[in-house]
Amino acid sequence: MTSLNRTSSPGAPTIESISAITLATHDMSRAVRFYRWLGFQMLYGGEEADFTSFKVGDGYLNLIAQPPERRWSWWGRIILHVSDVDALYERAIALGLQPEAPPRDAEWGERFFHLSDPDGHELSFAKRLGRRS
């Protein structure tokens, strides 16, 4: 792998904001009730869903159901908005990193790709697409 000890080059894509944090749960019903009790506004999903999303300011707190046999092999995901998803993906490849898959357009209106950091924490780099109809 190429050395990561260099500063950002001019014209490189920039990280603009944290869009969402996704946390794994073994009990979606309990987790959803907890966040709703605290006053979080649920946008999608619910107690019986595999994925639930709450609005938090300009971002989101997501919950993803993890089967009981997977005892925290996956903690969650940080979703970061970037200026150029494809350019950042190409930069990651050039650095010898191994994203999960190439960028793709998602039905929720973002273009994204996932990459794990050296400790296994999943990062998702995304950019909002044009308005959905």
Give a written overview of the molecule.
The termini are far apart. The chain has a single domain, classed as Roll (2,3-Dihydroxybiphenyl 1,2-Dioxygenase, domain 1), CATH 3.10.180. By secondary structure, it is an alpha+beta fold. It has helices at residues 28-37, 85-94; strands at residues 15-25, 41-44, 51-56, 59-65, 76-82, 104-105, 110-116, 122-128. An eight-stranded mixed β-sheet has the order 2-3-4-1-5-8-7-6. The protein is built from two helices and eight strands, in the order βαββββαβββ.
CATH architecture title: Roll
- Helix/strand/pairing category: alpha+beta
Largest sheet: 8 strands, mixed
Strand element count: 8
CATH class: Alpha Beta
Give the overall shape, derived from the CA principal axes.
globular
Q: Overall pLDDT, averaged?
A: 83
The tally of structural domains comes to 1
Lateral arrangement of strands in the main beta sheet: 2-3-4-1-5-8-7-6
Query: In CATH, what is the homologous superfamily?
Result: 2,3-Dihydroxybiphenyl 1,2-Dioxygenase, domain 1
User: Termini, distance in Å?
Assistant: 42 Å
Taking all Cα atoms into account, the compactness measure Rg is 16 Å
Q: Which runs of at least 5 residues are low in confidence (pLDDT < 50)?
A: none
Instruction: Give the fraction of residues assigned to helices.
Output: 10-25%
| Helix-strand topology string | EHEEEEHEEE
Residues in β-strands, percent = 35-45%
